[in-house]
Amino acid sequence: MDSGSGLEDPPSDQEECRTQLGLFRKLGFSPQQVQAARLKLGLGADTNTLLGELVLAAGGPEDKALAATGMPVLVPRGESPSRNNTPPVLALGVDETSEDDDALRPIVIDGSNVAMSHGNKEVFSCLGIRLAVNFFLDRGHTDITVFVPSWRKEQPRPDVPITGDIPPGP
């Protein structure tokens, strides 16, 4: 007996706009950005299309390239050949007068966490730290600091061995 104008009607356009606005606000977009995207795409644009437009409009050239390539995951595992007895601390810096100071943020890496994660929580893998540093160097970062707690600089213990000393940075 339902004539099609009852309970199965889709939500009104105004209701859908409010729902979309709430979603996009939770994702960090301003109401002005949402309105600009709606005007560009038309009021009938679906949520995914609007979200795509918001992401494109909000991101700069670096963000667009990052979205296209994605963030690679550090997957290589294993031991690095021991080269010398330098402690697993690495600090790379650049002078303050660089032209790209505001283009990339300084990077601080928790070396202990990275090394233990790379060593599957069984060994302190210095190779994991090197991979993390190289990851950011490959992306143009020059201000990279790795910190390791002082107790990690001691001789390895049987319960937490250290594999692959880190060679001095470039």
TrEMBL record:
Domain RNase NYN: 104-155
Domain of life: Eukaryota
Keywords noted in UniProt: Endonuclease, Hydrolase, Magnesium, Metal-binding, Nuclease, Zinc, Zinc-finger
Pfam families: RNase_Zc3h12a, UBA_6
Cofactor (UniProt): Mg(2+)
UniProt cross-references to InterPro entries, sorted A to Z: Rege-1_UBA-like (IPR040546), RNase_Zc3h12_NYN (IPR021869), ZC3H12/N4BP1_RNase_Reg (IPR051101)
Domain (Rege-1 UBA-like): residue spans on this chain: 19-55
Name under which the protein is recorded: Zinc finger CCCH-type containing 12A
Lineage: Eukaryota, Metazoa, Chordata, Craniata, Vertebrata
